[in-house]
Amino acid sequence: MSTLLLAASAESTTVRLTSQTRILAAILAVAFMLLILELIRRDRMQERYSVIWFVAGLGMLAGAAFPGLLKLVADAMGVRDTNVALFSIVLLLLLGLALNFSVIMSRQAAQITRLAQERAIERAKADQQAAKDGGGSPSGRGSA
Amino acid sequence: MGESAAVRTLVFIPAWNEEEPIAAVIADVRRHLPAADILVVDDGSTDATAARAREGGVPVASLPFNQGLGAALQTGYLYALREGYDFCAHLDADGQHPAAEVARLLAEVEADRADLVIGSRYHAAAGEAESDDYKPTLSRRIGTSVFRFFLTLATRQRFTDTTSGMRAANRRVMSLFSEHYSPDFAEIESLQLAVREGLRVEEVPVRMLERAGGSSFLTPLRSAFFIFKGVVVLVVGQFRPRHMEAGR
Fold first, then answer.
1. What share of chain B is helix, strand, coil (3-state, %, to 5)?
2. Please, where are the H alpha helices in chain B?
3. Total number of domains constituting chain A
4. CA neighbor of B206 nearest in space, from B127, B87, B118
5. Looking at chain A, which residue has its C-alpha nearest residue B68?
6. Between residues 62 and 121 of chain B, which touch chain A (CB distance below 8 Å)?
């Protein structure tokens, strides 16, 4: 087992992607981008949120087409094992995306709250108006 | 409707599924604060809270879905600000807060002794001793002292009842709270915010009643999480930018 590990680490200075994995990765990348396209087409996703996913898909495709790129990035990071470099990059990207969504979610939650408040205030004003007009008889007003 | 005085006061009551006590609370406010307008903020109740309040002849600001106490309180402050009220106060809808005590809080802001007045169920005069009317549970006591400690640290001002939902405020507070009010940790963060913005915040000891029905929602685990969340909110709050430095 240990010799196997040693052999792997010694070998890992070169990128070892078989053409099979590269083809698979390329197909996955293309399928992924088609899925994004379909989601936009069916109004399930807005264009502005799709850009980042297309970038991710193109990155996948680039990695599959030119495995040397990955090696370049790994060297730039000072990481010997390209697999570790790949996983770190993907992990960081996902972390960034999740954070981005939390920010978007918070903004939308604030907007929804304000919308609800505006609507509530309008209703209260309508109540007040009705009380002024009809002498305060609360008939015919449905309860929420 | 409006009494002879030019000063207009709004008392609002945030209510979430309080169909039982709401009518009595409204009547209590009417009795002790006859000159004030009343607004019930219905926080997406699924029972007849809104209908009961309307039957009582009170306008109801119904949030279309439950948004949490902070959002409900902010609705009241926003309404008071927009409708041009000079002062506002709020109290809980479950009948724990006597309206007579709210009147005392309002007197403080009307006399311009403070911008925001908090009704404290703990007798500040008697040190840490609690009033005879109110006996808190152990987890509540722990939470109270933790929040007290951190809020004192953050504001350099002594607060005894940091989570009190009985307050009175003037227009300065209305304009601040209608824009900046944490939806998650309304009571504590709002105190920190008000002090940071240079507002005069004051505590007045008040008498509160035991919760009429039902038990507190706080289990030990929930309490621990609640306390942790509160501490995080307070620490983060120290790094927030100030908004109205030229206010005073």
1. 40, 15, 45
2. 22-32, 49-55, 69-82, 99-110, 138-155, 171-179, 186-196, 220-237
3. 2
4. B118
5. A113
6. 62-65, 67, 71, 74-75, 78-79, 82
Structure confidence by residue, pLDDT tens digits, B104-160: 999 999 999 999 999 998 754 444 444 455 566 777 778 878 888 888 888 888 888
The single residue listed with the structure tokens 């209260």 is A124
How far apart, in whole angstroms, are the C-alpha atoms of residue B48 and residue B235?
39
**B247 pairs with which residues across the strands?**
none
Can you tell me the distance from the alpha carbon of B106 to that of A96, in angstroms, rounded to the nearest whole number? 48
What proportion of chain A, given as a percentage, has pLDDT over 90? 42
Answer yes or no: pTM beyond 0.90.
no
State how far the Cα of B106 lies from the Cα of B101, in Å rounded to an integer: 9
Q: Nearest C-alpha of chain B: how many angstroms from A40?
A: 29
Question: What tokens does B234 get?
Answer: 């307070």
Summarised one tens digit per residue, pLDDT across range A30-54 is 999 999 999 999 999 988 888 889 9
Domain boundaries along the sequence of chain B: 9-247
- For domain B9-247, give its CATH number from 3.30.930.10, 3.20.20.140, 3.90.550.10, 2.40.70.10: 3.90.550.10
Integer Cα distance of B139 and B190 in angstroms: 22
Residue B170 corresponds to which tokens in the numbers above?
């003037």
Mention every residue, 6+ apart, whose C-beta is less than 8 A from residue B50: A143, A144, B40, B42, B60, B62
Helix locations, B56-137, DSSP H: 69-82, 99-110
Residues 6+ apart with CB under 8 A from A34: none
d(CA B46, CA B162): 29
